[in-house]
Prior knowledge:
CATH superfamily: Aldolase class I
Low-confidence stretches: none
Strand order of the largest sheet: 1-2-3-4-5-6-8-9
Helix content: 40-55%
Oligomer: single chain
Number of helices: 13
Number of domains: 1
Amino acid sequence: MRTPLCEQFGIDHPIFAFTPSEHVAAAVSRAGGLGVLGCVRFNDTEELERVLTWLDDNTDGKPYGVDIVMPMKIPTEGTSIDLKAMIPPDHVSFVEQTLLKLGVPPLPEGEGREGVLGWLHSVARSHLDVALQHRPVLIANALGSPPKDIIDTCHEHGIQVAALAGAAKHALSHVANGVDIIIAQGYEAGGHTGEVASMVLTPDIVDAVGPDVPVLGAGGIGSGRQVAASLALGAQGVWTGSIWLGTEEYRGLGSNSEAWETAFTRATSSDTVRTRVYTGKPARLLKTKWTEAWAEDGAPSPLPMPLQNLLVAEAHNRISASNDPDVISMPVGQIVGRMNAVRPVAEVVAELVSGFEDAVARLDEIRG
């Protein structure tokens, strides 16, 4: 399983793994793929500095990347506008009443933290500033093209830039802005997604951007057969995310690992929902009592990003601390139906590679 991206990044397999866990990212890189650390969870740049230093020291010299959340257009941030004051009281009341109805207790006195600030443009820029002091080979942006000055800065440091796209027209815009690698993220994916499934989206984007722009297939990829399918559609590699939530190395990230493992191991591929309740933009989440409450008659419409995240940040902290698998709020793709056991990262990578080889061998037999 080798494509030009393997030579470009110095990796053995064109398997790119998005994860909020530095332990998962390091394990993927050590296993021959490219671990990409999601930075949105870091409010404190000092914590991110410590984590990236740890990655530098625990990847055996192998490459890794980082993922930020930065809109191309700079919002009205850092002005006199108080974002929290823009949240309607009815929304605040709905969240509190829903938590009460679902039996989610308040956090103990003195516990809790500020909402995740990585969704804010200014914080994402600070994440990049920290990353540039380390050795990532890739900067990926979850919201499409980052601003042009960010792309130029990355290129000046010899870092490639990747951006997610849910439609061919978005991919073309990214290329025009200077993005190097397009991540064709299908409807099946966890987190922010578009409306086109990967079987249609990947070849659409490959054909649109042409042979000189590498494309990573994303959405619903959790086995070697699915990697083979993505490469058959013209991708040069795969961008994976949800499958790493079910690994041993992911344990310990937050307080809800036991509840999360119970939730995903019992879920089917039908147990997710695409909704704006998590961040304000359409994202695929595990279907739970929390997501169902937002779909009931009388529930308010989710607010735009970043207001929705500011609204639900404390609720997510409380849900996480409650350790209840029926309520948990977690982005995950439809591949969750295959995540029925917790495995080490190295085993997952090995299965992706061997499953790919088996699929190709079967096709060779059919071809005769």
